[in-house]
Amino acid sequence: MSINEVRYLPECGSTNAYVKEHFEEFGPVGAVYTTNQTAGRGRLGRSWVNAEGKALYYTVAIREPLAQPATLPLLASLAVRSQLKLRYGVDCQIKWPNDLLLNGKKIVGILCESVSYGYEQQGRGILCGIGINLAQPQSYFDAADLPHGTSLALQGAAVDLAADPQWLAESLTDFGFDRPMYVFAREGFAPFREEYKAACVNIGRRVTFDLPGGRQGAGEAIDVDEEGRLVVRTDSGEEHVFTGEVSVHGIYGAV
User: Fold this and answer.
1) How does pLDDT run along the chain (255 residues), one tens digit per residue?
2) Which is it for the CA torsion 45, 49, 54, 58, positive or negative?
3) CB contact set of 198 (below 8 Å; sequence gap of 6+)
4) Is residue 64 exposed (0-12), middle (13-18) or buried (19+ Cβ within 10 Å)?
5) Which of 60, 108, 125, 127 is in Cβ range 3.0-4.6 Å of 31 for a Cys bridge?
6) pTM
């Protein structure tokens, strides 16, 4: 087994669940991928629709101790963005914290989870599941009731379903995660902050966000701080948002 093993599965219920079960088999950074995921799940408990052979379902296992593990989703969005630009020449935007948009529609979803493993579950790790819409037709998004979703092929990218999943899985593991991990593990999000802000579609837009107790706040997103929180200027001052749902006015139909 290499340090950065990338394991292909012809079919998988959930790549995140698989990595949880096999976590100790991977080195500091390792991954699995499939193009046929039958039992995945979305963020915030949303339902899952498989797109057999038309999308990449990928999970990276990270056993390296992280100084700031809560910001891994933001690093992950940069990792995917850079590899999609290399492969297809597309320039995705990031909807905080980690959705990737192409021409205003969602093309990538990311879900990170903590993992306990080893003797008496004393080991601590983290996994990051990534779904990339490669070549689903418009009918897929219509049937799944995903009006704000799209695929690379629908946006004009030249997708090669025979070669691209392996290329993306290997490049994400070696160049998207492993190489930046040396800095990220020690220093967290701060060294990547300016790159992230430059791609963040929230900045300069009006947003609404969840508050404790089921309430909602609203204001203009003005920054992303060194802890990865979205900084929103509201009528009552600045809010630093880190959890819950954030809607961006002018994106996904929010107006």
Assistant:
1) 345 799 999 999 999 999 999 998 888 899 999 999 987 665 545 555 678 899 999 999 998 899 999 999 999 999 999 999 999 999 999 999 999 999 999 999 999 999 987 776 667 899 999 999 999 999 999 988 889 999 999 999 999 999 999 999 999 999 999 999 999 999 999 999 999 999 999 999 999 998 878 888 999 999 999 999 999 999 999 999 987 678 887 776 443
2) positive
3) none
4) middle
5) 60
6) 0.91
Contact 181, 64 (CB under 8 A): yes
* Residues found in the chain: 255
Q: CA-CA distance, 155 to 249, in Å (whole number)?
A: 22
Tokens, residue 222: 């003005």
Strand-by-strand arrangement of the 93-95 sheet: 6-8, 29-34, 55-62, 123-133, 105-117, 99-102, 93-95
pLDDT tens digits along 245-255: 788 877 764 43
